[in-house]
Request: fold
Amino acid sequence: MKVVSSRRSHLIAGAITALAAAMHPLALLAQDPDPLSRLDPNTRFSVEVIIDSARVAGVPTRPLLLKALEGAAKHAPNGRVIAAVRSVFHAELDVRVALGSALDESEWTSAVSALQSGVPLEALAKFRGDHSGKPFTRALVVMTDLIQRGVPVNEASSAIMQLWQRGAGDGDFYGLWKNVEQDILSGQNPGTALQQRVRDYPGRVTPGSKIPPASQEPENSSS
Amino acid sequence: MTEPKAAIAALTFVLLAPQGALAQVASKLQAGSITTQQDGEMPASVFSVAPGIRVDLPYLALAAHGSAWLTGQQWQIADGTLSGTLLTPTINHFRAEVIGNASRAFFDQSLANDQFDAQARLHMLFAQNGGIWVGGGVARPWRIAVVSAVDVTGGGAWTRVGDATFSGTYTNFFFTKVAASRDSSGTTQTCGTRNEPLSLAGSTGSSLSSSSTATATDCRRQSRFSDIEGSVNWAYGWLELTGQAGYRFGDSYDVTPDSRRWAAGTAVLWVTSRVAAVMGGGRIPANPSRGLPARNYANFGLMLSYSSIPRTTVPVAPMTIAAVKAFEVRPLASGTQKITVRVGGVETVEVMGDFSDWMPLVLMRRGRDLWDITLPVTTGVHEINLRLDGGQWLAPPGLPTRRDSFNGDVGLLVVP
Reply:
């Protein structure tokens, strides 16, 4: 009798656990077999055509799917969603030309972001020449943000490339970004702020060495 | 440099300087043609430049906007407003708001006045899907000799249906008018004779005040009317349409026939998140407290902004990202990340990003102003948005950002 009772309680506990897992939003996400069903049929068809084209071209399809889902989540009009997905696809083709196709997902994401922010293809291609396994994701993320904050594209791309070629690491780029952000918030011209901060670095940077970051990056945080 | 030119230059500098990068500062500059027509008069067209700037702090918003008109070869300031809004946190769906304005209106050479007004509102909010409010306030016009004070009470309701926001308001205006001993129909009114001459200093002769010049006696008359107004705003991607219509209740002495009913519409075509074409037209009722007559208008112009122009269709603004005191992402075991947000005075906090296939995830409240959620987020670059009280999706503070192709920004979260 006790065995039966124990088994029953295990069954109930298991059912509750399964139910709780199924109710959890992330579980629901993982179980979403057809995320494109969030789009209307016409938009979905257009997005699927673009995704098929990407598959044939050999560039990642997940960023395209994600861009479509982002547009749907933000209630963007259908035409804007399709245009955004197409823009990512074209950017991916350009990234492949600039950097090759041996990129991980983060590199694809950051490179596409940089291109869409206006970074010239030639500037992006420079990261390929000095690739040698060194990650450039953070450099591109910082470059993208600086451009958005008003730093002229050429100034941002050349400054970041200069630091990257001198061996700056992720912490250096984070420190640079934090400092420039603070300068801009203090009212400084974005381009001037970047130039001054980069000017502070060269003396301390030698190829292969780390730039002492202005602020450490223990985690992604703000306070 | 004349005063209007200096003001225009200063405002343009403020707008074109790279202040858009400053946190929580939004500015815009609208320029275009405005045609107005009062009943029985020829239409008058002017080129208008209307800058505006707004600074949002967690519980305080400061704004300045104005316009200058080019009439012939001369610039003139058409209006200007400085305003401050104090907001309380949302507690159990309730939120209080205190608004103060100092403004100047300069309709034409004969109609110029200044006004201070203050009002308080109590909002009841249902996330960002709807709400009701009641409130009241007082306005103190200057240089309008025929109106000594205006008390305002009213209420309203609004709701969102899909991409549309509907709102309705009912507002009572109580005036203390100083009028002639005979009204417009010639009927003698009960008036007291003033010992001193009625001072019209500062009044440059509005249609209302000019009647007061005919007599040395004045009538302090309580006057009132009520406005009921409905509006709808529909925003769908690059197109934003706003329409409004209203009706004014009151007796014929207080409400002129040309202000009984009115309607207006505006279309905004968003070329990018920083550039929009604006066109609209309609009828504006008279504003007796400012001595402004009813008129028809049509405008067409461009709206420019250094930073993305915030679209606010909800009568009470949602909490801005400035209210977020901290946003942290900390790694936990087995590839999960704990996202913690410190923000007070809100009822819901959500995040979404590529890691959730852009499905909104609600954070759990852990304290008065502490919210968190634990998510499986892989190493690499992730795009993330944050939303407070069902408002707009925003880039979390403290992260690099990028444009999202949908007139907004996303944060770029790098998980090492």
